[in-house]
Amino acid sequence: QTYGTEYTLVTKNAISKRSANMVVLPVGTTAPFYAIEYGLSNTKEAENYNLALELDIPTSPTWGNTGVPAYTYGTEPISYFSRVAYFLELESEQYGWQWVWVSMDAFTQNVMNLGFPTRGTGSVVYDQYVDNVNILSNQPQITPCDDSELSGQKARLEFWSYSY
Q: Per-domain residue ranges for the chain?
C-alpha cells in the first residue's frame, strides 16, 4: 500500500481491523479508504540506517535477572557505525499507534551493547552526554528535533539495568 493512495476495500464475510480504528462494512459492499504509514516509513532518516537489533517488548515484561529474550538481528552484519538510533512503537485500543525515533552519534562500537541492559547480563552503564541528537514522533507533546536544531548540541543518555 502506498501512503495517500485511495484503495477500495471489498468484504466477503470478513471483518478487518488495522491497529487503531475498526472498519466494518456490510457483506458485498465497498468503501474507499487511505493507507496510513506509521513509524519508520514516516522517519526519513531511517532510510540511512541498517537494523542491528529488534525486540518485541510485551506489555508487562518480567525479565528481572534472567535477561532480555533473544533479539532478532538485522540481515547484514554491522562492524562499524557512526550513529545509532532507537525506534519505539506502541499500539493500544485507547491511544492508537504511537512512535518515537531518537538517533545520535555512536556512544559505543559494540553492537551488542546497544540492546536493553539487564542485571543478569553484566551489562554496561551509559550515563553520559551524546552528540547530534534527532528526535521524531507522531505525538504532539514530543517536540521534534532534527540536525539543524541540535547540530553540535548534546543530550543526556541514561541507560542501565537499574534506572528508574
A: 1-36, 39-159
